[in-house]
Design a protein that fits this description.
- By secondary structure, the protein is of the alpha+beta class.
- It contains 1 helix and 6 strands.
- The chain has one helix at residues 61-72; strands at 5-8, 11-14, 21-22, 34-37, 43-48, 57-60.
- The strands form 2 sheets. Strands 3-4-5-6 form a 4-stranded antiparallel β-sheet.
- The N and C termini lie far apart (31 Å).
């Protein structure tokens, strides 16, 4: 997927150099597998590991950190 781009705040984020890693909770019988790329400048990208060609959600690092904090605090029914 060379040159794959996603948009955040009307600007393109080049995902070509994204280093994807599978989330630690995405193992075993868990069917909700996600991959995270945190090596990109200013943003974090998240994609479905079973459908990487389907694109990625690109959010600011601060937004992703807030999301993780809320998950850890139990604010979502997961």
């Amino acid at each position: 997927m060379s040159g794959m781009q996603q948009y955040q705040n009307d600007r393109a984020t080049d995902l070509f150099h994204a280093q994807w890693r599978k989330a630690t909770r995405s193992t075993g019988a868990n069917t909700g597998c996600v991959e995270v790329a945190a090596n990109l400048p200013d943003v974090t990208a998240v994609r479905d590991s079973k459908r990487p060609e389907g694109g990625a959600h690109v959010v600011s690092r601060d937004a992703f950190a807030a999301f993780l904090s809320d998950v850890k605090a139990g604010r979502f029914d997961l």
